[in-house]
Design brief:
Structural class: mainly alpha
Number of strands: 3
Number of domains: 1
Radius of gyration: 18 Å
Number of helices: 7
Shape: globular
Order of helices and strands: HHHHHEEEHH
Oligomer: single chain
Distance between the termini: 18 Å
Strand content: 5-15%
Helix content: 55-70%
Strand order of the largest sheet: 1-3-2
Length: 207
């Protein structure tokens, strides 16, 4: 049976040999998650951000990652129908407060997350800009928002770093349990696929 990749540097087999009861394996577990999220998504968004006109694509990737990171935190293996819940909960995190209140979280999900991922546009009265005085500003007689894509991306990067640091600590038992649930699911899916597909033989075919 082939071991398919779960990240650029790790395969499903690399995950399956880890033992959650072994303290020494938790640094590797954190590295697997970092390699999966940064190696497949975050670093490309960071590279894109260097281009002046990349705000939409960067925020689209960041919306995808916000939902994904929250699923890791909560141990969600089937996010069908839970996107709004995941994104709004993510925006409650300390890196996005106090800017994103309940109203802003709801509007962001509907007009940015869904707007970008489903229609490739920011909906209603939203603007995506850079070098703003705040992460999020309410404008247009309180009918619209300006979101700073650079600040948002930095907040997402910091949230992931915070999370990876927490799961390295033995006291974070719930986060650790949820991570293991999520990664076991991901690994089992890759194992099932490995019975049907050839493993990547070179970097050109890596996913």
């Amino acid at each position: 049976m082939n071991a398919l990749r779960i990240s650029p540097r790790y395969t499903s087999r690399n995950w399956q040999v880890l033992d959650s009861s072994n303290p020494e394996d938790w640094s590797k577990a954190a590295d697997v998650v970092r390699d999966r999220l940064d190696g497949r998504f975050l670093r490309f968004a960071s590279d894109c951000l260097k281009d002046t006109h990349s705000g939409f694509v960067v925020l689209a990737i960041d919306c995808l990652l916000a939902e994904t990171i929250q699923q890791f935190m909560d141990g969600v293996t089937n996010g069908h129908g839970r996107s709004a819940e995941m994104v709004k909960r993510f925006l409650k995190g300390k890196r996005f407060q106090p800017d994103f209140d309940a109203e802003a979280r709801k509007a962001f999900y509907q007009d940015i997350r869904c707007g970008l991922l489903h229609q490739a546009e920011a909906k209603r009265m939203w603007l995506i800009r850079r070098r703003q005085p705040a992460l999020l500003q309410k404008v247009a007689d309180d009918q619209g928002y300006i979101v700073d894509v650079e600040r948002f991306h930095a907040g997402l990067q910091d949230t992931l770093s915070d999370y990876l640091k927490l799961i390295s600590e033995p006291t974070s038992s719930l986060l650790r349990s949820n991570l293991w649930t999520k990664m076991n699911h991901i690994s089992s899916v890759r194992t099932a696929r490995g019975a049907l597909y050839q493993a990547e033989g070179n970097t050109a075919s890596a996913q």
